[in-house]
Design brief:
The chain is an all-alpha fold and 120 residues long. It has a single domain, classed as Orthogonal Bundle (Non-ribosomal Peptide Synthetase Peptidyl Carrier Protein, Chain A). It is 48% helix and 0% strand. It contains six helices and no strands.
Length: 120
């Protein structure tokens, strides 16, 4: 029988198509695995059902943003390219003003049986 940690990693691996060996406790869904928008919502809903986690406190846009491109995307891309040499190293979540969801968070929430809002 698998322990909870292995079960969550295997679930995320199956959902994302990544090999379980590449997924660790500190792996983030958005930044490391590229789960965004509606895909993030679908993953978390399936996770909640499989691991019996109450998702009342979950807010998809807080963690995954939205899919698709804004009409301002070309300007944002230009700004990113031009400002790159002057910026500090930031995670994908920080760049997108999102709160990271790590595998360890999913394990913690599954143990608690509910999604817990983390302080920003």
């Amino acid at each position: 029988m698998q322990n909870l940690e292995e079960s969550v990693i295997d679930f995320v691996a199956a959902f994302t198509g990544f090999k379980a060996e590449r997924i660790h406790l500190h792996t983030t869904l958005y930044g490391d695995l590229g789960v965004a928008g509606d895909d993030g919502l679908e993953l978390i809903q399936a996770y909640g059902k499989k691991f019996q986690v109450d998702l009342t406190e979950f807010q998809s846009t807080r963690h995954f943003g939205s899919e698709g491109l804004s009409i301002l995307a070309p300007l944002c891309l230009l700004w990113m390219v031009l400002s790159h040499p002057f910026r500090q190293k930031r995670t994908s979540e920080e760049e997108s003003n999102l709160q990271a969801v790590r595998i360890r968070d999913l394990i913690t929430f599954a143990r608690a049986g509910r999604w817990m809002v983390k302080a920003d």
